[in-house]
Write a structure and sequence with these properties.
It is a single chain. The termini are far apart. The mean pLDDT is 86. By secondary structure, this protein is an all-alpha fold. It is built from two helices and no strands.
């Protein structure tokens, strides 16, 4: 009977050892789970802050474009027509091109 009692004690000791190992693994998993939860909460707060920042930026850009449209007379009745803006833009580029070409002629004659 003593040999069966020794075997039972050995099995009991092995079970206790494995139970301790299992308990240690559970503590590790609980720690990892807690770390993951805290990281997710931090990321959630960061995303909320980012969403608020983009919402604020969107509102600001919308207001700026509305003010720019009013400043250039593009909104409301009696606004500047699109063709007039196109003509001003083309005329401006043409004027800059002419100044560039004529200044090249003046500078070339000075260096000679």
């Amino acid at each position: 009977m003593s040999s069966s009692r020794t075997a039972e004690d050995t099995y009991e000791a092995q079970n206790d050892q494995r139970l301790d190992e299992l308990h240690s693994k559970i503590r590790n998993i609980r720690g990892v789970t807690t770390d993951i939860y805290e990281d997710v909460e931090r990321q959630h707060l960061t995303l909320d802050d980012t969403g608020s920042a983009f919402s604020s930026l969107s509102t600001s850009v919308s207001q700026s474009s509305r003010r720019a449209a009013q400043a250039f007379g593009l909104s409301g009745a009696g606004g500047v027509r699109q063709m007039r803006i196109i003509m001003y833009t083309v005329g401006g580029f043409l004027a800059l091109w002419l100044v560039w070409k004529t200044s090249g002629i003046w500078w070339a004659s000075e260096s000679a």
